[in-house]
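pinned: reference chain
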Amino acid sequence: MTDFKKLPTSGPFRLENATVPSCLLGQEGGLAPYAVTVDGAVLSDRTDVPHIDMGGAMVLPCFIDMHTHLDKGHIWPRNPNPDGSFMGALETVGADREANWSADDVRTRMDFALRCAYAHGTRAIRTHIDSIAPQDAISWPVFAELRAQWAGRIDLQASSLAGIDRADMQGDYARTADIVAEHGGVLGLVTYPVEGLRDRLRGLFRLAIDRGLELDFHADETGDPSVGTLRTIAETVLEMGFERPVTVGHCCSLAVQPEGEAFETLDLVAKAGLNIVSLPMCNMYLQDRTPARTPRWRGITLVHEMKARGINVSFASDNTRDPFYAYGDLDMMEVLREATRIAHLDHSDPDWINAFLANPARACGFDAPSLAPGAPADLVITRARNWTELFARPQSDRIVLRAGRAIDRTLPDYAELDHLMRTP
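pinned: its structure tokens
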């Protein structure tokens, strides 16, 4: 095995005898040997450079994390979830937002989270931003600042977030939609059963159509089988002929619905061309949590059944150290490991790695990750030589190359946030 300490910190060099997922090469099968030449900021097929025998070590493109909440992140020390429940999370975050979410508070926590993601090997992120007034006028300009500051390191997108019953499509949320459009964002809502759901959705779609915006929903984040707003979203896309990308996250209740009912919804989702993103770590934390009772299900949606229908399925981090998820570090390697275990991605199709790379890129419009000559030299290099070695350890010693140079992977110290955690 190659001594990681002796790997060059910048190119040109050629990584011989590396291992990569075959699907990233456009091939069938699981893993394949491959040689990657780092030639400045890009990959090439040059061979007239120093060769390094990788001993079968796995090389991946840098990750895409398409569903996060950077504005909520790292508030747990000052406002933890009192009971680990979904309602506990909603109420605690709401109270923290009203008391603490100044521009400086949001900016500091978001930047901290981005530094973590960058060190772990993520190159693109979509974050949801709580956007009920007046928070929308505070957080969106902060996002714009950070997007400019992080350009060239992490490509950033943002989607607005509000409960569907709190969003006035003719009033405040129309103003929010203008803010979203001004900042090149995505329009979003949390959907759940409310009176006039379909009319509210039509109003949201009209806001998006008028401003040329994509849509991104949180839907059915519950273990109640009677909740099925995903179906209504798909029906509204088809009814209105909406042509821009639509993404829906969570969709947990599908997993506890009668199979025939769930499959009818999935057929509509496929017909409507929706993108689905599953958030396995957060949903394992929140779903089916009852005091003194062992949870009976895993909380995630029907990812295998979706993939079988050609639905574009991705996985992402979701929340980080906030009342919706007490843990996490925006580490997509951790998401890959945990999703594999929770959703039984092993002993399945060999191309699930695309759900962390190509699929989220397609859903969000990010540049597709690639190992082909001419692609950016943005790589995650591990010691693991196969999937079981990759998933057995957290790969804490991974090397991350950005534009062909090894980055400093030192994580920021939580103590940096201590001054924000001192609340009255």
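why pinned: The radius of gyration is 21 Å. The domain at 63-364 is CATH 3.20.20.140 (TIM Barrel).
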